[in-house]
Specification:
Structural class: mainly beta
Strand content: 25-35%
Distance between the termini: 60 Å
Order of helices and strands: HHEEEEEEHEEEEE
Length: about 220
């Protein structure tokens, strides 16, 4: 017994206990996170193209730092009309685009399209930010690509399953826009202009910059089935 006591003393072993009064610091606000988080090596996420794509470690969100022509976004894992000759006349704009496997519906004030005059089919699960504006939701008749792959009835198959994981707390940057996986979701935006969004399965937040009113953070609610 004395030998055991001597060994503990000689090796300098210590026993640590959790401090019950410790309160971890609150997560940074989305724009602060995009400004301060370290940048990851973009080569890991390019797949030989100019588009940077990633998925979160829990497989709930997939995002691309890419480009858009009008409403047509260049996505490597979804059908799109970005390269159609008819769209060549449209200006190319850098954007960050995210899709979720489970998500919240858009708030009425965030509905930005009348869906061909029907006022039906504007759904959540997709967020997009350009250099000067951010939006949540889109007109569609079905599920998001992420929902099809990793939602409650997902196939767990397809190109989304091959995306590299962006580690929690890291940033990616392309053409002045950044995305960061943190706080159970993803923040993307133009940090210099103060425009962006935060999305997670439980909530979303739009940040429209100092000159515009920002949407209030959405309260946690039931996930979309």
């Amino acid at each position: 017994m004395l030998a055991a006591l001597f060994l503990v003393t000689a090796t300098g072993c210590t026993v640590t206990t959790e401090d019950p009064s410790y309160i971890p610091p609150a997560p940074l606000q989305p724009m602060e996170q995009l400004e301060k988080a370290p940048l990851a090596d973009s080569k890991t996420f390019s797949s030989g193209t100019d588009v940077l794509s990633f998925i979160t470690a829990d497989r709930t969100i997939a995002c691309s730092l890419t480009s858009a022509r009008g409403e047509h976004v260049n996505l490597p894992y979804g059908q799109n009309r970005y390269s159609d000759a008819a769209n060549n006349k449209l200006p190319i704009v850098p954007v960050a685009h995210c899709e979720l496997a489970t998500y919240q519906p858009p708030q009425p004030g965030d509905v930005k399209d009348d869906c061909a005059g029907t006022h039906l089919g504007y759904m959540g699960g997709v967020a997009l930010v350009a250099p000067d504006n951010a939006r949540y939701g889109e007109c569609r008749s079905g599920v998001t690509s992420m929902e099809a792959a990793f939602g409650p009835k997902g196939t767990k198959a397809g190109p989304l399953t091959q995306l590299p994981v962006l580690a929690d707390g890291q940033n990616l940057e392309r053409n002045g826009l950044r995305c960061s996986a943190y706080n159970g979701g993803v923040a993307c935006g133009n940090a210099s202009a103060g425009v962006g969004f935060f999305v997670s399965p439980e909530r979303y937040e739009l940040v429209q910059g100092p000159a515009k009113s920002s949407a209030s953070p959405q309260p946690e609610g039931p996930k979309t089935p």
